[in-house]
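Weekly structure sync, notes
Attendees: PL (lead), two postdocs, one rotation student
Agenda item 3: pending single-chain targets
PL asked that the sequence for the first pending target be pasted directly into the notes so everyone works from the same version. It is reproduced below exactly as submitted, 151 residues in total.
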Amino acid sequence: MNYYGFLTVKFEESVYIYVTLAKKYLNNYNHMKIKVGTYDAIFYGTVIGNENEPIDFLIAEEIGFIIRVVFKTDPQIKEATIKAEKFDKVGAQLNFINFNDGLPTGNSSPIQIGNLNGRELYLNYRVSSLTKGGKSFDFTWLLGKEAKDAK
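Predicted structure, written out during the meeting:
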């Protein structure tokens, strides 16, 4: 017997029934809604980044809104920190500085990045350094309440 999340699959004559059920549930997965407290989780996952290469999130393709994540090391700064700067025409670059600890490091509450479709856009994250280059970046993009400056 193999376990795939919430489904149990038996490799016997009834395997086709289980596989059909699995396909039915997995095809409806994109209709699932996830709430984190008062926030709506809109996208989440893990990216294994390549060493010295950015990770780009194309948030709104029609206007070219990109959030770029860059990992840097700065011996002048004592602890892990994030600094934001403008990127391209409407995007932002988040510089994750000194996230070099092998243990996951992240925020304790969502950080507001901007607004999306009239609602506040937030990010929750965890960063882990990999033994040989790159970082593991766990993320959840969240939508909060209606943005004050939404039109």
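Discussion points:
- The mean pLDDT is 80.
- The first strand starts at residue 2 and ends at 4.
Action: rotation student to compare against the earlier draft before next sync.
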